[in-house]
Amino acid sequence: MDRLRAAALSLLLGLPVLAPQALALGKCERLIVTGSPDSPPYLWRDPQDPVHLIGASADLLRQVAGELGLKVEVLYGGKRAQAQEEVRSGRMDLLVDAPIALDELDSLDYIHPALVHNDFLVWTRKDSSLLYNSAEDLHGHTGAISEKARLTQPFSTFSKERLTLQRTPALTPALHKLLLGEVEYVLAGRYAGMVTTQALGMVNDLKAYPQPVERYAGMVTTQALGMVNDLKAYPQPVDQPGLFLAVSHNSACNDPWLRGQLAKKMTELPASGLTEAALQRNLERWKAQLQPVSAPKP
């Protein structure tokens, strides 16, 4: 109604009628955004400019915001917990990769549907006897998962009740365990698993100095990593957590117009082809950053 009154008043006074978008932007023209800084290809710190975050989620939000006439700055707000607190407090406006959490509903407005989904796959060795068709097939087998993994609440509950999962600080140690035969499978995101296994495959480029510092442990570990090509991922996801836009209740930008327009854009994204293009582009970007830097020629 406020916009209708503003338009009517403009007509009565002979002023130009502003589009609803222009009227809405009077309150907020720029969004300060953050998210988890360690979840490529979705979001990670820019090595060339660590103050900012880059990735598919950042690219997609900029695309959407640009269509709405909004400017977006995607900043590093600290590790995941700290970034969430920056948004809860209103110091930053929006989380670009928020998993649904019931205890956050008092401080965040989630925009539906999700911006992207992170497919979690089951990774095994190619010679494994484990046959996976559904999550129940993992019962009775020992697996590993990174502590940083964000799963849906139903699957988290299922895994606690039915699965035997070892938690590791990150994905790489979990894959080490798989390669060394300490676990039978690893649960990992599709893209994170792809690039991390590729990075581990670079072990053939390593060399050892002759000084005997943990020589045999190093030999065993590098030998195991050299077997990374013996890993496979089952194509059907075991879980598909959504990563949502979430606007702080304390943000000056949080109003019905913004939430409604963002929800509309989220609905349009899947059919646009932009999501897959952004993921592939940033997957290659991340891979390039993992490549060892060549030594300068003398």
Could you outline the blueprint of secondary structure elements for this entry?
Blueprint: H1 2-12, H2 20-24, E1 30-34, E2 38-39, E3 43-46, E4 49-54, H3 56-67, E5 71-74, H4 80-88, E6 94-98, E7 108-117, E8 120-125, E9 142-146, H5 153-162, E10 164-168, H6 171-179, E11 185-189, H7 190-200, H8 215-225, E12 231-233, E13 242-248, H9 256-272, H10 274-290
Parallel strand pairs: 1-5, 1-6, 9-10, 9-11
Antiparallel strand pairs: 2-3, 3-4, 6-13, 7-13, 8-11, 8-12
Helix pairs in contact: 3-10, 7-10
Walk me through what this model shows.
The protein is α/β, with parallel strands linked by helices. 38% of the residues lie in helices and 22% in strands. It has two domains: 166 residues, D-Maltodextrin-Binding Protein, domain 2; 114 residues, Periplasmic binding protein-like II (D-Maltodextrin-Binding Protein, domain 2). The protein contains ten helices and 13 strands. It has a five-stranded mixed β-sheet, sandwiched between helices. A hairpin with a 2-residue loop joins strand 3 and strand 4. The longest helix is centred in the C-terminal third of the chain and has 17 residues.
